[in-house]
């Protein structure tokens, strides 16, 4: 029997981790994007998932060896497709900033990642329309999308109010058109992570059968899905490294001459660990949501936007915006907080 309120807390922790992961990257000096992205990513997609899964899963290798190859393939493939979204996700924040970039990209990710799985497996009506719990959860999803719209409108209003100098002071490479195009692609492709987690249900069952605790049952799934993400990112960043001849930056050479290597590696490790922890807490939260586990994706996305917007305030991205615009984004945050409570209540009604 799950505990949806405890699950909600875990999803908030995951959202905080996700919203915070890019902050350490801002302190990296004299490294190209592909160098710090891949360095942090190796921690996110390879080191951390296998380390935590090895510590918390009973017979990890035996669980994965017993998993049908078809399941492993789909988890890996959806992870690879998600990798395309993850690549452009970093560029989204680069061009739009933390708050606006995450609002647009994650809005699309929320809608696709939450609603497509039950539509695909034919359980949408049974889970969301035929009972009170499902209808409350569906209402919470709608409220989440409303909150995302409010935050995005606030970002658009901020963009209209600021001078070019003020925009670049907050986000040095601000570019609305390029940023929105990248955010749309990133948002749609990033939803594939939810599909990968759903495809990993047989792995969770095997994990439980081998004696793994309920809270940790999803960790082996992350190992496989994130290998797919590593594949895509390794190919893309490897191509950029060859093209830009930037590999020497890891040793403080070429463009990276004089780079603070210890600091850069430390910041990448911190950012990479924070990124992984979002799904570490996600799997814990999902384990508490019972038959409405797919609603975890909405909770996760809403939590990320809440905390990323708060980071946007802390990093002065909204400092030059009008009082009215700041009020609009605060209203969006309030609606998103309310949506997580509504979804949590819907799950609690099913217990």
TrEMBL record:
Q: What is this protein called?
A: L-rhamnose/proton symporter RhaT
Q: Quick check: keyword rRNA-binding in the entry?
A: no
UniProt xrefs under InterPro entries: L-rhamnose-proton_sym_RhaT
Give the originating organism: Caulobacter hibisci
Keywords from the named record: Cell inner membrane, Cell membrane, Membrane, Sugar transport, Symport, Transmembrane, Transmembrane helix, Transport
Domain of life of the organism encoding this protein: Bacteria
Listed transmembrane segments: 6-23, 35-53, 73-91, 98-116, 136-155, 176-199, 219-242, 262-282, 294-315, 327-350
Q: What is the lineage of its organism?
A: Bacteria, Pseudomonadati, Pseudomonadota, Alphaproteobacteria, Caulobacterales
The UniProt record lists the keyword Nucleotidyltransferase = no
């Amino acid at each position: 029997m799950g505990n949806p309120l405890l699950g909600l807390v875990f999803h908030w922790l995951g959202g905080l981790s996700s919203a915070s992961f890019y902050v350490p990257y801002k302190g990296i000096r004299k490294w190209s994007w592909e160098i710090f992205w891949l360095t942090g990513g190796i921690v996110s997609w390879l080191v951390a998932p296998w380390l935590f899964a090895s510590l918390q899963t009973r017979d990890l290798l035996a669980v994965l060896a017993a998993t049908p190859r078809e399941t492993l393939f789909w988890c890996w493939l959806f992870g690879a497709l998600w990798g395309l979204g993850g690549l452009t996700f970093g560029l989204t924040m680069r061009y739009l900033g933390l708050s606006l970039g995450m609002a647009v990209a994650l809005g699309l990710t929320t809608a696709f990642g939450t609603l497509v799985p039950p539509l695909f497996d034919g359980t949408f009506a049974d889970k969301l329309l035929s009972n009170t719990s499902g209808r409350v959860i569906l209402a919470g999803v709608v409220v989440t999308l409303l909150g995302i719209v409010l935050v995005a409108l606030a970002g658009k209003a901020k963009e209209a109010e600021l001078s070019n100098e003020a925009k670049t002071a907050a986000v040095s490479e601000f570019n609305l058109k390029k940023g929105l195009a990248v955010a749309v692609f990133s948002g749609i492709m990033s939803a594939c992570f939810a599909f990968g987690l759903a495809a990993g249900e047989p792995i969770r069952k095997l994990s439980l059968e081998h004696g793994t605790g309920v809270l940790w049952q999803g960790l082996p799934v992350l190992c496989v899905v994130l290998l797919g993400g590593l594949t895509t990112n390794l190919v893309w960043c490897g191509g950029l490294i060859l093209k830009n001849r930037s590999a020497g930056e890891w040793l403080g050479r070429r463009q990276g001459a004089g780079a603070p290597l210890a600091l850069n590696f430390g910041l990448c490790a911190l950012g990479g660990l924070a990124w992984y922890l979002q799904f570490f807490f996600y799997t814990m939260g999902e384990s508490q949501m019972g038959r409405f586990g797919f609603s975890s994706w909405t909770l996760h996305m809403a939590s990320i936007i809440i905390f990323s917007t708060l980071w946007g305030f802390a990093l002065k991205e909204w400092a030059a915006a009008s009082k009215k615009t700041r009020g609009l984004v605060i209203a969006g945050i309030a609606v998103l907080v309310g949506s997580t409570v509504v979804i949590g209540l819907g799950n609690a009604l099913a217990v």
